[in-house]
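Hello forum,

I keep getting stuck at the same step: I have a sequence, I want structure tokens, and every attempt I make locally crashes halfway through. Rather than fight my setup again tonight, could one of you with a working pipeline run this one for me? It's a single chain of 429 residues.
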Amino acid sequence: MKHRFAIYRSLISVLSACLFLSLTFALTCFSSEAENKGTAKTYTLPQAKPEEVGLSSEKLAALGKFIETSVEEKKIPGAVVLVARDGKIAYFESFGMRDELTDAPMKTDSIFRIYSMTKPIVSVGVLMLMEEGKISLDNPISKYIPELKELKVGVEGPDGKFEMVPPKREITILDLLKHTSGMTYSFFFASKVKAMYKEAGIPSQNYTTEEFVQKMGKLPLAYEPGTRWEYGRSTDVLGRLIEVVSGKPLDQFLEERIFKPLKMVDTGFYVRPEKLDRLAQPGDKRLLNVSTLPKFLSGGGGLVSTAGDYARFLQMLLNGGELDGVRILSRKTVALMTKDHLGPIGNRSDAQYFPGPFAGFGLGVAVFNKPIGPIEPGTFFWPGFAGTIFAVNPNKNMFRILMFQNLDQQTKLYMWRNFPGYVEGAVIK
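Reply #2:
Ran it on my machine without issues. Output:
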């Protein structure tokens, strides 16, 4: 229980910090910091001095010192941190190395593999289709993906006996959005179902999204749909749902409907050749190759992005679905997305990986429903497997982003656990 609570606390610790942008124009502006001259055009939010948005420059400087010390102690090679409030970036800074092997310095426009921070973006895509009347969240996923019609539930008895039984009901789109589908990941804890995932080659970059769901259709669920929360392949299936309903590949849909309207110019499923010199790397290069468009467009973890790009996405959510006159979702749908949909299910002692007594899960994001430390109820957030993490606090009209690349679990926990106090402590009004 103590171990599980430590993991939980680290995930909620997501409070970032940053320095100023050197140049911004209007509400969508070209970033041309001295250190980034000559790089591609990127768009940022307006800038403000911390005190103009109720934050302390002195307290945020202490955050910078914390990150610098973490780099000096070789906990992380480098990082980018960003804090925005009232629609303006108050602190935006880069630290350390973008790539230790080449001594390339980190810059604020460095590109990161964001892994599971892909999930909120794809979930927004699904909700856009809902608003257009093309899907209903209560519909079974098999209505759109017939390969998932005959799923079974894998049941392990106390005597070790394993059997596959029909579920009491089918998986709905809502189940997939809130991770109560019964689909799991193979790398958290151990079970017969997880072992079957591995035997089937899940995950694999060698499948298309269509081939992926065909494989999933032959594998058992870890539990009855709707009965418990477990982090898993649900959002990868939602990526395929978007393709089927929209008639477009997932990368094309996201580019046309989300990235281009929000001016997220550095976000996608791979890094273009002219931008590879901006890609952040851990020292050991254990992360996925993102230099070419992958065969498998993972809706659950395939995107790369920058802090500046992701800030535009978060500001859209904080604004109730709109940014710079472009509406992505209705205010009502954003409210639906960012409220807890788990209830008692999220409080189970055996809920794997995250939800517990302080937080639940919305539609693609985790949501705090009780205060814990400096975190206020209503704050929603989610991390990425390689160290990226964000949190949005609607009560304070602010959000924060921390981006680094490191797969070491203890390092991630250390950074996430120590990060929040610096930013929340900087709030002066």
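DSSP finds eleven helices and 16 strands in the chain. If your local run keeps crashing, start a new thread with the error log.
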